[in-house]
Amino acid sequence: METINLWKQNLGTVPDDVWRQSDLRVLILADNGLTQLSSQIGNLQNLRTLDLGHNKLLQLPDEIGNIEALSDFLYLHDNQLDSLPQSFARLWKLRYLNISENRFTSLPACICSMSSLVELRATDNQIADLPDCVSALSNLRELHLRNNVLRTLPPAIGNLADLRQIDLRGNPIEALPDTLAALPKLEKLDLRWVNTLSPPAWFETLEDRGCLIYR
After folding, report:
1. Are residues 92 and 5 in the same domain?
2. Is 120 part of any domain?
3. Which of 22, 63, 64, 206 is deepest in the core (most CB within 10 A)?
4. Is 1 a residue whose pLDDT tops 80?
């Protein structure tokens, strides 16, 4: 069996039989009222996609970091998480991560080790800052940070040479680093519902290059 879809089954707890499916590639456990997850999830060594969205998880087991094959999607949105296990740093093959609608006050540093990430969604949290190590996400194309409490971004974000889109809607942004102007592939900078920023002069440089700035 390569796929198990248990979406919206009101499980409360994941059946033990799921953890014995060693060939599993896709596991969907979204919208099941889960409050905790068994450490046995680390047994699913071939898993490529994991959907834990729309549950009530307060924390995740370290053993998720053992699933080093996890490469396609990891959905953690709409839970009650305020941190991630350091073992997540081993998920370096992962291309898509969604931690939106949780309780994060900063972006977990372990995410910086996920060097294959192409899209990172961290909207609707209480994130007040990004770590400088975010510059290590060299394959990142989309960064979604809508509805947080960011006042600026680290200058190191200018090292994300592959970045195409940045969504900062609904943040109290007061200043942005000049390094954004040097991002060679930036196509979209979304600043709608941001009323605290005086547009810097380099916005014109970005727009002349074809970047769309929504404000």
Report:
1. yes
2. no
3. 64
4. no
**Structural domain containing residue 159:** 127-140+149-215
Q: How many residues would you count in the chain?
A: 215
pLDDT on residue 184? 96
Same domain flag for 10 and 61: yes
pTM, to two decimals: 0.97
Under 8 Å between Cβ of 31 and 54:
yes
- CATH number where 43 lies: 3.80.10.10
> How many domains does one find in the chain?
2
Query: For 195, phi and psi rounded to 5 degrees?
Result: -110, 10
The answer to whether position 114 is within a domain reads no
Q: Is there a domain that residue 56 lies in?
A: yes
With bands split at pLDDT 50, 70 and 90, how would you rate the model's confidence at 25?
Answer: very high
Share of the chain above pLDDT 70, in %: 100
Domain identity same for 6 and 99: yes
Q: In what order do the strands lie in the sheet with 49-51?
A: 3-5, 26-28, 49-51, 73-75, 96-98, 119-121, 142-144, 165-167, 188-190, 212-214
Query: Is there a domain that residue 132 lies in?
Result: yes
